[in-house]
Specification:
In chain A, a hairpin with a 5-residue loop joins strand 1 and strand 2. The relative contact order of chain A is 0.06. Chain A starts with a strand and ends in an 8-residue tail after the last helix. Chain A is mainly α and 125 residues long. In chain A, 69% of the residues lie in helices and 3% in strands. The longest helix of chain A is centred in the N-terminal third of the chain and has 30 residues. Chain B is an all-alpha fold and 196 residues long. Chain B has one domain: Four Helix Bundle (Hemerythrin (Met), subunit A), CATH 1.20.120.80. The chains are: A mainly alpha (125), B mainly alpha (196). Chains A and B meet through strand 1, helix 1, helix 2 and helix 3 of A and helix 1, helix 3 and helix 7 of B.
Chain lengths: 125, 196
């Protein structure tokens, strides 16, 4: 049976590839089912925080399936994991920045009138 | 001079240079879309009111497009698996199907955009539509880019299979990684924009 090497240097024989193909089809079915679940949950009209949490949880599961199996991250080299680990850390920091800005409440949740009702403090006084 | 480490792996990384290159590129893409998602969060949470996506956008069309893009990811990975089995004819069928599904995605998007413009809904109309057009527009550019690369490997680029099959298989795998990334981004865009 022919042995073949992919870019990570792993060898695959035909039986190995057949097993991969079966996994791809299973993942495809799972992704379709999760897409239907995503749309069905949206029709329930849950409160926004719950809806966001559930929708993101399903999206993370779907994304993980694509990344792990279609992008072969489940059996990748350490260097790729290191690159992705660093990327995820910066990605989370990037998403956290606006959340922190919102939680400080400065100038965002104040009604426009109240912004001007604060005691005037001039840097020249 | 030949490009080094296109087929054989580097001893220090255990990877080919192409594989490291595509993953570094995808890392930069994560940050690009991350910045736009962060903008979305900032604009949405800072807004006194925000419309539900399904009151403005066409959810059935977007659901159909989600199915199309997921299917194209499967055909893409099957194209790579066909090459690994040394079945070139089957590869071309799957790769052709991937390109066709990408085209279907774009046609659906065209109808979606046209409907918005007919109703005088433009990026300048409100914040929701501004972020919707920016995110989906950038994603659409990625679909077009991925289709161009895939079309090259389906057509003229496929000649390489005759001269250096393993390098060609590796290049198709790298192209596939980009295509799956495009699918992955849509998996998050769909609920964020259309359902919440």
């Amino acid at each position: 049976m022919a042995n073949m090497a992919d870019t990570s240097g792993m060898t695959h024989d035909h039986a190995d590839i057949d097993r991969h193909v079966r996994v791809y089809i299973t993942v495809f079915v799972a992704l379709m089912a999760l897409t239907i679940i995503t749309v069905a949950i949206a029709r329930v009209h849950l409160p926004v925080p719950v809806a966001v949490s559930v929708a993101m949880l399903v999206a993370i599961i779907k994304g993980s399936l694509v990344a792990c199996y279609f992008m072969h991250l489940i059996s990748e080299k350490k260097l790729i994991y290191a690159v992705l680990g660093l990327t995820i850390a910066f990605f989370i920091a990037l998403l956290a920045l606006p959340v922190l800005t919102v939680h400080d409440g400065y100038g965002i949740h104040e009604p426009p009138g109240e912004l001007h009702s604060a005691p005037a403090t001039s840097p020249h006084q | 001079m030949d490009i080094p480490y296109t087929v054989e792996v580097r001893r220090d990384t255990g990877l080919t240079n192409g594989k490291i290159g595509i993953w570094l590129f995808l890392a930069s893409e994560v940050m690009l879309f991350g910045a736009l998602f962060a903008s979305y969060i900032l604009i949405r949470t800072g807004s006194p009111s925000w419309p539900r996506g399904d009151t403005i956008l066409n959810v059935p069309l977007a659901t159909f497009n989600t199915i199309v893009l997921i299917s194209s990811s499967v055909t893409m990975v099957m194209a790579w698996a066909s090459l690994m089995r040394r079945r070139f004819g089957t590869y071309r069928l799957y790769m052709g199907a991937t390109i066709l599904l990408g085209f279907v995605f774009l046609v659906v998007k065209y109808f979606e955009y046209s409907a918005k413009f007919e109703h005088h809904l433009f990026p300048s109309t409100n914040n929701f539509l501004a972020i919707y057009f920016t995110l989906t527009g950038l994603h659409m550019l990625h679909v077009i880019g991925g289709m161009a690369v895939n079309a090259y490997f389906w057509g003229p680029g496929a000649k390489q299979y005759q001269t250096n099959p393993q390098w060609f298989i590796n290049r198709v795998e790298h192209s596939g990684l980009f295509w799956h990334f495009v699918d992955l981004v849509w998996i998050f865009l769909f609920p964020t924009l259309y359902l919440l």
